[in-house]
Write a structure and sequence with these properties.
Chain A has 112 residues and is mainly β. Chain A has no helices and eleven strands. Chain B has a five-stranded mixed β-sheet with strand order 1-9-8-3-4, with no helix packed on it. Classes of the chains: A mainly beta (112), B mainly beta (111).
Chain lengths: 112, 111
Amino acid sequence: DSGVTQTPKHLITATGQRVTLRCSPRSGDLSVYWYQQSLDQGLQFLIHYYNGEERAKGNILERFSAQQFPDLHSELNLSSLELGDSALYFCASSVEGRYGYTFGSGTRLTVV
Amino acid sequence: LAKTTQPISMDSYEGQEVNITCSHNNIATNDYITWYQQFPSQGPRFIIQGYKTKVTNEVASLFIPADRKSSTLSLPRVSLSDTAVYYCLGSSNFGNEKLTFGTGTRLTIIP
């Protein structure tokens, strides 16, 4: 157990639907990062939050949004889902980048 | 951001020492070099981090020359369970907001 909790572990939904992925960071970590990993692809950075504020965006689609709540958990919202959105979505947390990121076990999203 | 270049894949036999080299020609002065390991369908796992010279932990060693334009991850006496994708990347002291993983090196250990 890495200390980063992601729910749900698996999600199957239809095209056009909306889903919410949840991440609870490791205790004490203020930063939360979201990554997308499609089949046999590298990890694509989506967005970074630090203590409730958005710090940086990667190639995140306009259909996707995220937020970090006062208790530091974060949610990634994916809407108008397309088949190509099927992927593993990872959340990571850190105190500072210097000490590396701790990743959760991911949410596998399948859009049918 | 430091752009990194690694071999796409490597094969090695069990019991051998494996060295994976990463090039990062434009690494920033305050960037550390960090290596991660990823097994299929799992999140990446932090392996080792260093700034310069040599760092060793219970899992691996990391060699960074004085010019810091490259680094080498050394895995001693690999086993089948070391088969994974290995990523190197630069990260700053205060968090690299757009930390991006490259394609990594797919290491396959042969019995």
